[in-house]
Every structure is written in structure tokens, then in C-alpha cells.
Write a structure and sequence with these properties.
The complex is a heterodimer of chains A (about 575) and B (about 425). In chain A, the strands form seven sheets. In chain A, strands 1-25-24-3-2 form a five-stranded antiparallel β-sheet. In chain A, strands 4, 9, 10, 13 and 23 form a five-stranded antiparallel β-sheet that branches. A four-stranded antiparallel β-sheet of chain A has the order 5-6-7-8, with no helix packed on it. Chain A has twelve helices and 25 strands. With about 575 residues, chain A is an alpha+beta fold. Chain A folds into four domains: about 110 residues; about 110 residues, Alpha-D-phosphohexomutase, C-terminal domain (TATA-Binding Protein, 2-Layer Sandwich), CATH 3.30.310; about 120 residues, no CATH class; about 120 residues, no CATH class. Chain B is built from eleven helices and five strands; from the N terminus they run ααααααβββββααααα. In chain B, strand 1 and strand 2 form a beta hairpin. Chain B has two domains: about 290 residues, no CATH class; about 60 residues, no CATH class. Chain B has about 425 residues and is mostly helical. The chains are: A alpha+beta (about 575), B mainly alpha (about 425). The structure holds protoporphyrin IX containing FE. Protoporphyrin IX containing FE (HEM) sits at the interface of chains A and B.
């Protein structure tokens, strides 16, 4: 279709222009036929970048992404996809399953046939799926293209506005007024402008014509919002960069220090506390249940400063931070964050402080410290030396009734010592010691020590035991951990960008929604006043402004009567 | 302390009755235009003003409820379903007052107030006692996030009220073509859904007032990692007569109702858990009492309910309603984005160590956000205005309500409060 893009006012417009960039006269045929229909003022009728006369493949892709229709489709499909993902639990929330077959079984068992279909379609991993991420990327692309496509032409149009507009442009706005004028037209226009100034409009005047404008900046709101969204989406994708992101769990019993895998840091759990609300603070329907008031891990963070990678030597640690980690209060150090995740109530020995006794006299010879994790090899007690021959953290017997350890956890530790010293055989005497005060371990201790005696490995002159194990109802000479705390350790270098993106987006939204761009044009031709007003939203407010200013200059009108859309319909 | 809580409950009751009074005034403003010899505009203005005054005083009572409960309970009352829904009602009143002050449309109250009344009545279905905060909620972001999110949603609610009014206003009962019939049907259907909600409230409060209770138990067998089967007996109390029993359950006690001595049927096996049966039962009761209520109203009116209301709206411009609806949503959108997404992300980062975890509640907040951004784009760039945009505003509010209530009832996630 041939289109004459040169306007009668002499301005040469780009192809695709709807309203002359300069005087505002409608340029395309359809708009010229119905002289009363309100004008489509989107982007002030300028040509968008994508409206080229002969599209190339790049232009076609550009056109695709620049279409708001496509954007709405993308948004709606993303919305539906996201909603589908909430029908059943996502795989990522089932932390104790790992294998694909386990997941399949879970969905089948929990949700039957529907579950099988759900899992088979991949909806159980919606948010990690290629199609969902592709949708997000497409929205991002669309955001960039769409904004670029419109913001530059719009900027151009708004920065070179003509004051005297084409009559049709004025009379076909959404807010219009026309009437006959008497007296001094220029003086009236100046007065009208003054009134609008009091409503914070900026005024431009040319003989017999006026342009009033306010809050133009609000037009940039949507674009700033979109820029924020783009930054946000890029940051979300950036979290996929492995070095930018760490997420792991660490279990620590009280007193334990462990390295955070993949870092130079070590954490120590000094103490874990869980507090419940007392009965009188609970609501009636909660009485008798346990409601947690507080979870807290008293933690210390260390950094390794020397001999960090030597498997033999102990690393040198320097404390860098101390914090009581609670839900809602993470430990944070140089981008590393340690969160309280969960806990387990599980008693575990840390150390005991047993005494070597002389069986004959019943007198203590001396005592020593015995650690459950990595006990040292040799202990000096009085005149004697105890050498640790064997250690079974979780004592048990194998099929041939030989001692062995079931796990590496000190659930039922047993220590085998060789004791050397005055008045003993040169090779020393062998004793086994079970710190756990249970019937079963005491039984094994006696059984095994008796058999050592029979074999001649010992004379049974010593016994090892904890003195006064209970004082005032509390364990004495025994250190143990009641709870194991689970910390979630995270690092997320994309976070600052996420917040920046969100903040920019928010600024854009506020600009775009709480201010409105309003413009009023008027011209007086041979005593006839024509006034048109446009706003991108809230025409109610614009009508009120116009009616107010007209009223102050002697023309009483009801705001509603200015509504052109209604007058036509 | 408990003196404050008692005072607070009384303030709540005062607010509730004032809202009802305000609704009646607005209804008179809409419906009674031709009662007296006064000019219809004067009538509307007068009753609208009285209604608005009652609404504002009611809102002050509601605020009093909120702050005294805060003081008496020791933490901001937004931490369980009762507290959240009462807060939402308060926020909708705030949004309504703001929009009313901008547009001074005397009739908006006739649609906004019943919405608030239904919401706070719904809140009262939940246990209203003050419960101590669990550690995850114990943070000042609780205050900031919940209050802003609810305020955003409240503006969507006002947008919904105006949109529904607009739809009823423009229904054309003379049309017999397909599109016209469809518009008539769906507008009526929207009213029906609201009546089902009222039916739910009537059923719950009716049977609660009568002290109705039945109970069932269900044995749940769980197989742990070591292959050991443990069975657990779960009991569930029904406060509505059980039409549906939980799947595979035994009756513990059954109070007969209208000659009904046992449940009519058992809920299907795919409805997991002992509470699913109870929820299904509640839905069935809501629909039944909604149908009864609707039937009675239809018998009295002898025409469609939309046709009853429609003539009373004749002198309002649908364009005004459309503008109010759009404006309310436009005011709400940034507040919602800030509260339900950005503040939510900040808090999630602090409490749960990740700003986003695809938890169902989070996802639905995102769905709401995307839905309203689609609405805005369609309006702005594709010229979807008038009834199309009004329907989107109605559906949008359904999405909001699903996010707030539906997710808790249907999908359990980290956010789940105790649900009814
Ligand atoms: C989830 C993603 C998006 C959100 C939350 C969003 C949000 C918004 C908002 C709030 C507005 C202002 C609407 C108004 O003033 O009534 C807007 C305008 C707009 N959006 Fe988006 N948008 C998104 C994606 C997109 C995409 C992908 C496109 C690309 C086609 C797009 C194109 C536009 C355009 C062209 C405008 C009108 C700008 C103007 O007033 O001149 N948006 N968007």
C-alpha cells in the first residue's frame, strides 16, 4: 500500500507513522475517514523501529519479540506453566529421594495415575525444565526488544512537540472542549496557562495556541520497570554460574568443628538450643502440643590460615566470626551465609573423663581425657602409659564373633588399651573400655576383659571407669551432644543484582502508576476555541484539571461533559 | 493482657455490625431511589453519605481491634488465617475509602462492603485465639511483607467490586444471540459463586451455633526407610454433618442430622489424608446451602438476580465504573509487587536462605502478578477495555483469593496456616 509520509505541514515522517510527528495530523487512510472517532494516541502515533517497509529475517525476529501480543502470550503461558507446577510437590522438595526411579515411585504411590502422568510429563521439575527457562529467556528478549522498539521513537516525539497542532488532532482527543470566544483571545490564553501552571503544568504559548504538559517523566516508568525486570532475569540466570552459587547442608553435633566443603572456612557448633513455649503461653487449641519458640546454634566461623591442605597436619585456624544462628538470623561473612535449617535430637558422646583404678585397693590411680573423634594414641596416667590399640566407635560383633565397628559414629564406643608401667609384664596388659553406661556394653566389657585375663593378656589388676558419672542428676565427667544441628550454607553472588533489578523495577512502577503524563493543546481560530487533552491513564484527573482551569477563566463546564469517548458513543 | 484481647474482640464485633449497617445504607442508596419524592440524586447522595460515614467509623473500630490485639497479643496480628483474613478485610476497607475519596461514587460501597463482610465472616470460621509466633514468623519482615501484600490485594478487591458492578450494569437482557446469552449467564454465575460463599458461612455458623460434631478416624500405614510399617491413627472432627466420610475411615461418633445416620459416601482414594474428606464435605455443604439460598432468592425475585440489580444501576456510567476498576488495580499493582514479591523475597532470603524457592504460595503470588501484568498490557496496548477488561478484573480477583485461601486449603506448603 502506498503511503504518503510527507505531511501537509511539510514534515517528512518515517514509514509507519500514524500521526504526523510534527503537527499531529492523522496520516493513515482509516483514520481520515471517520472524522469523529477518538485518535489512537499510543506512542503518540510515531513509527516504531520494527515497522519497516521490507522486513528482513532479523527484522522478522525483531518484530516477533517487539509485539505486545506475543508478550502477553508469553506471560500467560508462563503463568499457566507456573501454576501447573504447583499441582503436586516438586521433586526438589523431596530431599531424601535422589534417583529418577524413586521419584517415579513416589508420584505413583502418592497420586496414582495422575501422578505418573505428571512425572512423565516432567511437570514434577517444572521450574528447572528447558521450556520454562526458555519462556523466561523469551520474556527477557521480548522486554529488551519491545522497550528499544518504542522508547526511542517516543523520546523523539516528546522532545520535539509542536505547540500548534492540527485541528483534527485536537478535536479527536479523549478529552475535548470547543466553544466560541469573545474578547481578547491572547489574554485569555495567557490566563488559562497561568491557571494550569498552578496545577504544575509547564506552558508553551504561540500566537493563538497553547500546549500544557506535566509529568512527562512518568512515561518512562514502564521502560524503567522493564529494565529492572531485565536485570532481575539476567541475575536469575546468572545464578546458574557454578562459581556464583553454593548451596549445601552441614550437620554438626555440639562441639564439632568441620570444614565447609569447597571453602577455606570451618564452622564450629558450640551449642544448640531448642526452646518450646511454656504451656501458659499457648492458645487453647494448642495445649498439650509442643510449639517451638527458638532454634539456635551458637556458632563460630574459622578461616584456615596455614597448613590448610596437608592431610597429616592439623590446619591452623583463626576465628573470624561468632554468631548465634537462628531462623531469621543467619551468620553472614564475606558473602557466605550460614542458616539454621533443622535439627535432630540425637545423643552423641563427645568425650569422657575416665579414671584408671587399682582393683585391689579400689583407689584411683589417675584420670585422663578420651575423645570420641580421633582419640590420641597414648595417655600418661600416674606411673602408667595407656596405648590405644584399637578403637571401635560403634561396637559390634561380626559373624565369627570378632569385634568390629558398625559405623563411624560413636554410638557405642569401645577402646582397647595396652597398659604398660611398673610391676607389669613387659608387653603390657590389655583392657577394653566401654564408656556407654548401658547394660549391654557393661556386659561386653566384662566378658571381653575376662577373656583377656584367661588368655593371659592381662591380670585384671586395673579397671577403667568414670567416677561419679551423675552429680545432681546431671552427667558428670562425660561430655555429650544432645542435638545435631543442620546448617544450610549458601553463597549467592547474584543477589546484589537481584535486589538492584527489583529496586529499579519498583521505581519504574511507581513512576508509571502514581503520576500520569497529561497534555493539553488548544488553539483559537477565528473566535472558536478548540481544546484537546491526552493522558496515558486517569483521564478522570485530566478532565478535572481542564474543567477547573476553564472554570477559573470564566467557562463553566462539568468535567464529565469533556469526555470525548462518551460524547461519540 | 487478656483485657486488651477482650476489648479487641468487642471492637471487632462493633466493626462488623457497622459494616453491615453501612451496607444497608448503600443498598438503600442504590435500590430506593424512587421511594420518596426526593430527587434520585439527592436520595443517593444522602444515603451514600450515611453509608460512607458508617463505613469509616466501622473501619476505625476495625483499626482499634487490630492495634489492641497487637498490644494484647504481643505481636502483629497477621500470623494465622483468622488474623490474616481480618487484616485483609481492613485493607479492603482502606482501599475502598481511598477510591471513594477519589471518585466519590456513592454506589461503589454497595458492592465493596458485602465483599468485606464476607471476608471477615470467613475469617471468623478460623480459630481466633492469639497463638505464639513460631521462629520462622518471628521477624519484622512479617509485618512489612504481609501488610503491604494485603494492601495491594485489597485494591484488586475494590477493582473487582467495581468490575462486577460494571458487568451487571451492562448486561443486556434483550439480547438473545449467543454472546448476549453468554454474558447473561456468566454474570449471573458470578453472583451465584458469591452466594455459595455466603452459603458456606451460613452452614458453618449454623451448625457451629447448634453445636454439631461428628468424628472419624483413619489408619495411615507408613513404610519407613528400613521397610518397617508403622501405622498411625488420625482422627478428624466434622463440624458439618458428614455427607462424605474420609477415605477408608471408621466412624468414631456420629450425631444424626435430619434422619441422616451415616455418611452417604466415602471420599475417593485420590483425596489424600484425613482432612481431605472433611474439606470435600465442606464444599458439598457450601454448594447445597448456596443452591438453597439462591433458589429462595430466585423464588422471591422471580427473575435473574442480575436482572434485579441491573435497573438500579441504570443511571451510573459504565465508563465510570470501568475507570474506577482500572484505577484501583493500577494503584494496587505496585503495592502488590512490592509486598507480595519483593518484600517476600527479602524475607525469604532472611528466613529460609533463598529469595525464591518455588513454594506454591510464592508461585501463586507470581501467577497473580503475571495475571495483572497481562491485564495491564492488554488494556494498554491491545485496547482491551469495557467488559473484556472487567472480566479480567473479576478473574484476577479469583486468582488472588486462590492464592490467599485456595493454596492453603488445597496445596500445603511452607506457608500453610491451619486451614478449615
Ligand atoms: C513479566 C513481565 C512484564 C511485566 C511485569 C511488565 C509490566 C509492565 C507494566 C506495569 C507496564 C505499565 C502498564 C501501564 O502503564 O498500564 C508495562 C507497559 C508496557 N509493557 Fe510490560 N511488562 C512485562 C513484560 C513485557 C514484555 C515482555 C513486553 C514486550 C513486548 C512488554 C511491553 C510493554 C509495553 C510496550 C508497555 C507500554 C509502555 C508505554 O506505556 O509506553 N512488557 N509493562
Amino acid at each position: 500500500m502506498f503511503q504518503n509520509t510527507k505531511c501537509e505541514c511539510g514534515h517528512q515522517n518515517p514509514v509507519g507513522t500514524v500521526l504526523c510527528e510534527s503537527c499531529g495530523k492523522p496520516l493513515i487512510e482509516e483514520l481520515l475517514t471517520d472524522e469523529n472517532a477518538p485518535l489512537e494516541m499510543r506512542y503518540d502515533g510515531v513509527a516504531r523501529r520494527s515497522q519497516k517497509s521490507n522486513p528482513h529475517i532479523v527484522d522478522r525476529i525483531w518484530n516477533f519479540f517487539s509485539s505486545v501480543k506475543i508478550a502477553v502470550y508469553l506471560i500467560v503461558i508462563t503463568l499457566l506453566g507456573a501454576a501447573l507446577g504447583t499441582i503436586f510437590q516438586q521433586e526438589s522438595t523431596l530431599i531424601n529421594l535422589t534417583e529418577r526411579s524413586e521419584f517415579a515411585a513416589y508420584y505413583k504411590e502418592e497420586h496414582g495415575t495422575l501422578g505418573v502422568i505428571y512425572h512423565a510429563l516432567g511437570l514434577s521439575r517444572t521450574y528447572e525444565s528447558w521450556w520454562f527457562i526458555t519462556l523466561l529467556v523469551m520474556i527477557g528478549t521480548s522486554l529488551v526488544v519491545c522497550s528499544l522498539d518504542r522508547v526511542l521513537p517516543l523520546y523523539r516525539a516528546l522532545s520535539k512537540q509542536q505547540i500548534r497542532k492540527h485541528l483534527q488532532f485536537i478535536t479527536r482527543q479523549q478529552v475535548v472542549y470547543s466553544g466560541d470566544m469573545q474578547g481578547d483571545n491572547e489574554a485569555w490564553i495567557t490566563e488559562f496557562g497561568k491557571q494550569l501552571k498552578r496545577k504544575h503544568y509547564r506552558i508553551w504559548q504561540e500566537d493563538g495556541a497553547l500546549l500544557a504538559e506535566k509529568n512527562r517523566f512518568s512515561r518512562w516508568g514502564p521502560y524503567i520497570n522493564h529494565i529492572g525486570l531485565i536485570i532481575f532475569l539476567l541475575a536469575v540466570l546468572g545464578r546458574g554460574i557454578p562459581a556464583w552459587h553454593m548451596d549445601q547442608y552441614l550437620a554438626l553435633y555440639e562441639g564439632e568443628t568441620r570444614q565447609i566443603p569447597g571453602t577455606n572456612y570451618y564452622v564450629k557448633n558450640e551449642k544448640f538450643t531448642v526452646d518450646y513455649y511454656p504451656e501458659n503461653e499457648l492458645a487453647n487449641n494448642q495445649k498439650g502440643t509442643k510449639v517451638v519458640k527458638l532454634y539456635e546454634t551458637k556458632a563460630r566461623l574459622f578461616e584456615c590460615t596455614d597448613v590448610c591442605d596437608d592431610p597429616i597436619q592439623e590446619p591452623v585456624l583463626t576465628e573470624v566470626k561468632q554468631h548465634d544462628i537462628r531462623v531469621n538470623s543467619a551468620m553472614s561473612y564475606k558473602g557466605l551465609k550460614l542458616y539454621q535449617n533443622s535439627f535432630q535430637e540425637r545423643v552423641r558422646f563427645i568425650s569422657v573423663h575416665p579414671t584408671l583404678m587399682d582393683v585391689a585397693t579400689g583407689k584411683p590411680i589417675g584420670s585422663f581425657d578420651l575423645l570420641m573423634d580421633d582419640p590420641i594414641e597414648k595417655y600418661e596416667v600416674g606411673p602408667y602409659t595407656l596405648k590405644l590399640n584399637d578403637y571401635y566407635p560403634d561396637f559390634g560383633l561380626d559373624e565369627q564373633n570378632r569385634p568390629m565397628t558398625k559405623t563411624r559414629e560413636p554410638n557405642n564406643p569401645a577402646f582397647v588399651f595396652r597398659i604398660q608401667g611398673p610391676n607389669l609384664q613387659a608387653k603390657g596388659e590389655i583392657y577394653i573400655y566401654f564408656p556407654m553406661p548401658s547394660e549391654k556394653s557393661k556386659f561386653y566389657q566384662k566378658l571381653l576383659n575376662d577373656s583377656f585375663k584367661q588368655r593371659g593378656d592381662s591380670q585384671g589388676v586395673f579397671s577403667i571407669q568414670v567416677e561419679n558419672p551423675i552429680v545432681d542428676g546431671k552427667m558428670n565427667n562425660i561430655k555429650y551432644s544432645e542435638y545435631t544441628t543442620y546448617l544450610n550454607i549458601r553463597m549467592d553472588k547474584a543477589m546484589p543484582y537481584i535486589w538492584v533489578g527489583a529496586a529499579i523495577s519498583m521505581i519504574g512502577l511507581i513512576m508509571g502508576f502514581y503520576w500520569q503524563h497529561r497534555r493539553i493543546w488548544l488553539r483559537i481560530d477565528e473566535g472558536k476555541l478548540s481544546l484537546g487533552g491526552h493522558t496515558n491513564k486517569n483521564s478522570f484527573g485530566l478532565r478535572a484539571d481542564v474543567a477547573w482551569a476553564l472554570g477559573r477563566t470564566g467557562i463553566e463546564v462539568l468535567p464529565k461533559s469533556l469526555d470525548n469517548r462518551r460524547n461519540v458513543r | 493482657m487478656s483485657w486488651w484481647l477482650d476489648f479487641s474482640s468487642n471492637a471487632f464485633i462493633v466493626a462488623f455490625y457497622l459494616y453491615c449497617a453501612s451496607f444497608i445504607c448503600f443498598a438503600i442508596a442504590v435500590g430506593g431511589k424512587r421511594w420518596s419524592n426526593r430527587k434520585p440524586e439527592d436520595h443517593t447522595n444522602r444515603w451514600g453519605k450515611i453509608g460512607f460515614a458508617a463505613a469509616v467509623i466501622g473501619w476505625i473500630a476495625h483499626l482499634t481491634f487490630f492495634f489492641t490485639r497487637w498490644y494484647g497479643g504481643g505481636h502483629i496480628p497477621t500470623s494465622n488465617m483468622y488474623e490474616f483474613m481480618t487484616f485483609l478485610g481492613m485493607a479492603i476497607m482502606f482501599a475502598f475509602i481511598v477510591v471513594h475519596l477519589i471518585y466519590r461514587n456513592m454506589l461503589l460501597g454497595a458492592f465493596a462492603l458485602p465483599l468485606v463482610i464476607i471476608i471477615i465472616a470467613y475469617a471468623s470460621v478460623f480459630p481466633s485465639e492469639v497463638q505464639p509466633l513460631i521462629p520462622a514468623l518471628n521477624n519484622y519482615w512479617l509485618k512489612i511483607h504481609v501488610t503491604t501484600a494485603a494492601t495491594g490485594e485489597a485494591f484488586f478487591a475494590v477493582g473487582f467490586a467495581a468490575a462486577l458492578m460494571q458487568l451487571i450494569r451492562v448486561v443486556d437482557f434483550t439480547r438473545t444471540d449467543k454472546a448476549g446469552k453468554r454474558a447473561q449467564f456468566w454474570t449471573e454465575f458470578s453472583l451465584f459463586v458469591i452466594i455459595v460463599l455466603i452459603g458456606f458461612l451460613v452452614a458453618v455458623f449454623g451448625f457451629r451455633g447448634a453445636g454439631y460434631e461428628s468424628a472419624f478416624k483413619q489408619e495411615v500405614v507408613k513404610i519407613d526407610d528400613n521397610g518397617v510399617a508403622t501405622s498411625e491413627i488420625k482422627e478428624v472432627k466434622y463440624s458439618l454433618p458428614p455427607i462424605v466420610a474420609p477415605y477408608n475411615s471408621e466412624t468414631v461418633s456420629f450425631q444424626s442430622f435430619l434422619g441422616m445416620k451415616e455418611p452417604a459416601f466415602e471420599s475417593p482414594s485420590w483425596l489424600n489424608g484425613v482432612n481431605a474428606g472433611r474439606k470435600l464435605n465442606t464444599v458439598i455443604w457450601s454448594v447445597i446451602s448456596g443452591l438453597v439460598l439462591y433458589g429462595v432468592l430466585r423464588l422471591i425475585a422471580r427473575k435473574k438476580l442480575t436482572a434485579v440489580i441491573n435497573p438500579h444501576l441504570a443511571d451510573i456510567d459504565p465508563e465510570d465504573l470501568e475507570e474506577i476498576s482500572y484505577r484501583a488495580i493500577a494503584i494496587g499493582f505496585p503495592i502488590f509487587t512490592l509486598g507480595a514479591l519483593i518484600f517476600a523475597m527479602i524475607w525469604a532470603e532472611i528466613a529460609w536462605s533463598r529469595f525464591w524457592g518455588w513454594d506454591p504460595k510464592e508461585v501463586w503470588a507470581l501467577v497473580t502478578f503475571l495475571f495483572y501484568s497481562a491485564y495491564l498490557h492488554l488494556r494498554l496496548s491491545r485496547g482491551w477495555q469495557g467488559t473484556r477488561s472487567a472480566w479480567l478484573a473479576v478473574i484476577g480477583f479469583l486468582v488472588v483469593m486462590f492464592t490467599l485461601v485456595g493454596v492453603n486449603l488445597v496445596i500445603a506448603g511452607l506457608h500453610s496456616y491451619a486451614g478449615v
